[in-house]
Amino acid sequence: MTEKYFYLETFGCQMNVVDSEQMVEILQGLGYGQTDAAENADLILLNTCSIRAKAERKVYGHLGSFKPLKERNPNLILAVGGCVAQHEGERMLKKVPYLDFVFGTHNVHRLAELVQNAEAKLGRGLLVDFLDEEQRRQLFPARRPSREISRFVTIVQGCDNFCAYCIVPYVRGREVSRPSAEVLAEVRSLIDQGTAEITLVGQNVNSFGVKEGEEISFAELLRQVHDLPGLQRLRFITSHPKDLSDDLIECFGSLDKLCKHLHLPVQAGSDRILEAMGRGYSRDQYLNKVEQLRRACPEIRLTSDVIVGFPGEDEDDFEQTLDLLRRAQFAEIYSFIFSPREGTAAAELTDDTPAEIKQQRFDRMLALQEEITRRFHEEDVGKVLPVLVEGESRQGGGQLFGRTSWNRIVNFKADASLVGRIVPVRLIEAQRNSHIGVVESEGSAAS
User: Fold this and answer.
1) 259 annotated ligand binder
2) DSSP H or E stretch at residue 54
3) Which of 10, 89, 314, 332 is the most exposed place for a label (fewest CB within 10 A)?
4) Tens of pLDDT, residues 233-291
């Protein structure tokens, strides 16, 4: 019987989700059970993201909220991992004296050692050492198989792009690809245990295998994963526009298990700002990629990231971004107001746009995108779509939930025996973050 428990909170991107899955397995191997209530935990662990300054502040805020728990229970272990830990390191230990240990993105595999040292009260721990590319290639997380319907599989770690605003290459290191044979072996193992949907994950999956020379391309890896018996659905994230090849675009037209959704971060609609960001493409090149994708797969839906208020952005630059949103017709965007990250090139640029102007631009962009997104969702009402049933809905009421090929959540009443199957669901109501649906008879779903 488990006598000790951990509470884990994950911030940020899919890479952090994969790291957290590895942390869970390590802690369970040490005899810890997982709890959803921090006040019931013997160990509290935050896996952090440093993509924005707000994310770092949020971490420190959370740590402050845990201080009373530590005061009531001095044996409580409080730890921080992830990108903020890698970036802040020793400063974090100094700022938060009741923190037991900090470990960075390259040291997840040493979590057991840190926990055992904390349990033995051997002093506060700090592990933020960088590993070289070959060492990291040996440490790709090959998680234990599970019966989860949808799983992430890491294929690339780190990034070589060094976009002016981005801290990722400095906290996760240079790009390294996992051997394709290992990827295929892990996917086979997950499928054998009942996984129906695989998402291939990396900071830039498009450049998979490029540095390794003799490896297959990412498009070929997609084809080989797609053809594994038993797989029902395939996704990938994230895709850098400058590396989106014609071969990869063609996959959306030829691979029937590949979901008709692509997250393709544009960041800005002005050539001047794109160049300052170091993105490696122009607005026209980006929009040409969008046209190619829709020719290859007319049903495809695109999502994107956009930064407002990058240093030097003027009203004309911003209007070009709005124009790009109208042209690209993204189903959704993830938008941010620029925040400088220490150590990046953009942190050295003059940023003289008032905060209130940035906020006004952000609000205008959000209003435009909400109108586009709402139109997509309202037009979907009445459609019958194939939905992969993942499990019990958070909305309760005996409902299950699943996702369309476009990655839209649908909630509906159905028997739990449908979990793990793709079933036809008629969408009957559009809500802000999901649709309500009803299961149709087999054979009714659109392709």
Assistant:
1) no
2) helix 53-72
3) 314
4) 999 999 999 999 999 999 999 999 999 999 999 999 999 999 999 999 999 999 999 99
Amino acid identity of residue 264, one-letter, is L
Examine residue 426 and state whether it is found in any structural domain, yes or no.
yes
Domain boundary (97, 130, 163) is at: 130
Q: Is residue 135 part of a domain?
A: no
349-362 CB burial, b ≥16 within 10 A, e <16: bebebeeeebeebb
Same domain, 275 and 365: yes
13 is in an annotated binding site: yes
251 among annotated binding-site residues:
no
Distance of CA 134 to the CA centre of its chain: 24
Q: 163 among the known binding-site residues?
A: yes
* Domain extent for 9: 4-130
pTM metric for this prediction: 0.90
- What CA–CA distance (Å, rounded) separates 240 from 114? 35
Of 327, 346, 379, the residue that ends a domain is 379
Q: What are phi and psi of 289, to 5 degrees?
A: -60, -40
What is 255-291 written as a DSSP string?
Answer: -TTB-SEEE---B-S-HHHHHHHT-S--HHHHHHHHH
Number of domains in the chain: 4
